[in-house]
Design a protein that fits this description.
Layout: E1 23-30, H1 33-39, H2 48-64, E2 68-74, E3 77-82, H3 93-116, E4 127-134, H4 137-166, H5 172-179, H6 192-196, E5 198-202, H7 218-221, E6 230-233, H8 241-245, H9 247-250
Helix pairs in contact: 2-3, 4-5
This protein binds guanosine-5'-diphosphate and magnesium ion.
Residues 29-30, 33, 76 line the site of magnesium ion.
């Protein structure tokens, strides 16, 4: 068929194919969730309904994209790790980022009533998305450690901040002042779940399955989710144990 004279405009589209042989991480993050969480009366500092809804949306993304080997989430963000050899959307960065984030956002809205009951959503939330390449396994593990360390630090601070307000009657300004200059190591709290964030792994042959999970959340965490091989875990990603228990994540079996 003859091409129209307008066809040339296609040349303005830029090529954004990601390098081969690298881990692809797509990270999504809620836009203005400081306000969104306030407007919807999220429990401070951690609202389990919100965290569970985020994990449900992440699982929906994993059901659609079979090449995601691991997802890690905390607060209003989620990271999705695609296996190195994935060829989904021909590794086009914008296709990957936009499809993941739009499915995540629509799932967040779709499943909202399941987690928030009669609490109405007051306005439509938005999420941003980016793709990042990690050439080595170490880079990937360091990336996940970075996000989990961020989760620890924020939770230590937030938990102390809100405890001083809720239990000691301080104002937010007084609480902030009190915590100024205190080292993270001194904020000694046993909040394993909230400190760890949520990981969702696709494990074909996890050795020692179930180890390292937080027992306080055991009914939920030991539950098999919609797809039989997607598990919701609350584990330490920084140490060695998780990677020993789930060797398939870094070395997915060939299909
Ligand atoms: N109260 C509460 N707030 C949360 C929770 N999860 C996320 N948030 C809020 O969401 C914000 C997310 O951080 P960030 O992405 O940096 O801020 P944003 O630019 O406003 O989205 C946090 O600072 C909190 O205000 C939660 O479980 N409870
Ligand atoms: Mg945000």
């Amino acid at each position: 068929m003859a091409k129209s004279k307008f066809e040339y405009v296609k040349q303005f589209e830029s090529e954004d194919k990601l390098l081969p042989n690298c881990w692809i991480v797509v990270r999504i993050d809620g836009k203005g969730f400081h306000r969104f969480s306030d407007v919807h009366n999220y429990i401070k500092p951690n609202d389990d309904r919100a965290l569970d809804l985020m994990s449900k949306a992440a699982e929906t993304v994993m059901e659609e994209f079979k090449d995601i080997v691991l997802a890690y989430g905390q607060s209003d963000e989620y990271s999705f790790v695609f296996k190195k050899t994935t060829n989904v959307y021909n590794r086009r960065a914008s296709k990957l980022a936009t499809n993941v984030v739009s499915l995540f956002a629509s799932s967040f809205v779709y499943f909202w009533p399941r987690y928030f009951g009669t609490t109405m959503m007051q306005y439509p939330p938005a999420f941003d998305s980016r793709t990042v390449l990690y050439p080595t396994d170490k880079n990937l593990r360091d990336y996940l450690s970075w996000r989990q360390a961020d989760c620890h630090i924020n939770n230590l601070y937030n938990t102390c901040f809100w405890k001083l307000i809720q239990e000691k009657g301080l104002t937010p300004a007084e609480s902030q002042e009190r915590l100024k200059g205190i080292e993270n190591g001194d904020l000694d709290l046993s909040l394993q779940l909230h400190l760890s964030g949520s990981s969702t792994s696709r494990s074909q042959s996890a050795r020692g399955h179930g180890r390292g999970m937080d027992s306080r959340r055991s009914p939920q965490m030991s539950r098999k989710l919609t797809r039989p091989n997607i598990d919701r875990l609350h584990v330490d990603l920084i140490g060695e144990q998780f990677w020993t228990d789930y060797p398939d994540i870094l070395n997915p079996p060939k299909r």
